[in-house]
Amino acid sequence: MTRHDDMIRLRHMLDHAREAVAMIRGRTRPDLDRNRMLELALVRLVEIVGEAARQVSERGRARYSSIPWREITSMRNRLVHGYDEVDLNVLWDPVTADLPPLIAALEEIVPQG
User: Fold this and answer.
1) Structural domain of residue 31, as residue ranges?
2) Residues 2-27 pLDDT 10s
3) Distance (Å, rounded) from C-alpha 98 to C-alpha 96?
4) Which of 4, 25, 34, 81 is catalytic?
5) Is 4 assigned a catalytic role?
6) What is the pTM of this model?
7) Distances from the Cα of 65 to the Cαs of 8, 22, 59, 68, 109, in angstroms?
8) Most CB atoms within 10 A, among 14, 37, 40, 65?
9) How many secondary structure helices (H) and strands (E) does the chain include?
10) Residues 49, 16 contacting (CB under 8 angstroms)
């Protein structure tokens, strides 16, 4: 995979992480219990962040070692393979706590545009 391909994957991570964080703006954890569309949307967005991370080359992962690659792909795996038992706390906590710093890190890497 070329650096260009990695940049596309990093852009996907950034865009979908931003969308997830924007989606919860002004909402609380109980909103997730009451809103199935919000739940499904967040699951999908976090899955995409993880899948894009999984596709970044080993070279890209080494180059951007500040990104928590293993944690991101582990979350994706948990959501995809545990689709029938998604713990909404396991979904909410990373979106609220982990995605904002990930977004900040990716904004340092991905060219604006």
Assistant:
1) 3-109
2) 556 999 999 999 999 999 999 999 99
3) 6
4) 81
5) no
6) 0.91
7) 17, 26, 10, 7, 11
8) 14
9) 7, 0
10) yes
